[in-house]
Amino acid sequence: MSIYVRPVREQIEHDRVIRYLQIKLKRKYDVAMNVGAEQTAATVKGPNGPVYPDLVLTTTDRSHKLAGVIEVETGESVHHLEAMAQWAPFGRLKVPFHLYVPVASADIAKRLATDLGAHVTELWTYHSIGDQIRLALVQKSPIPGEARRKADRERAAEKRAARPAPRAAKPKPAAAKAKPRAAKPAPRKIARKPASKPAKKTAGKPAARRK
Description:
Elements: H1 8-25, E1 30-33, E2 44-46, E3 49-51, E4 55-58, E5 66-72, H2 80-91, E6 97-102, H3 106-116, E7 122-129, E8 132-140, H4 146-162
């Protein structure tokens, strides 16, 4: 959403590029537009309040997380005031900021972004050939801090890969099976002898006395 009031012809070209990008990017993102003087379709919370990019990209999953913002400029709107009011806030967002300018304005856009410290993740140029719009990527740079975070992730992955594989734990020896105790022999039964019967008294005559 530019603060510059464009002539009708430039505004038509500007809105045409926005609609072209919306169709091109909707395969990957949910795309909302601020076309013309509208400032309601796509609002992003910036460091100093709400900002109104020409296109707002959000993820297609349930979270609808902010995935990037896009600003389209025409030849007359690539100037210091526009860059200070729009590009600088967009560049401070923690998402990619893509800037589209006419081919002839690429060098001016680079210089303005550098002078103001406006971080442009991707700088594109566009031009029309009949009914077609041709795009070209001019400059690409990572989001501030993203390169450092990526390097940290790579170093952590290298450290994990360099670590020796943990030794497999030795299997614990199986507990020795207790030997079955020998069954105690059954106590031997001692045969008891029957008690001797008392001798029977023989009833008889007394022995004859010897003479």
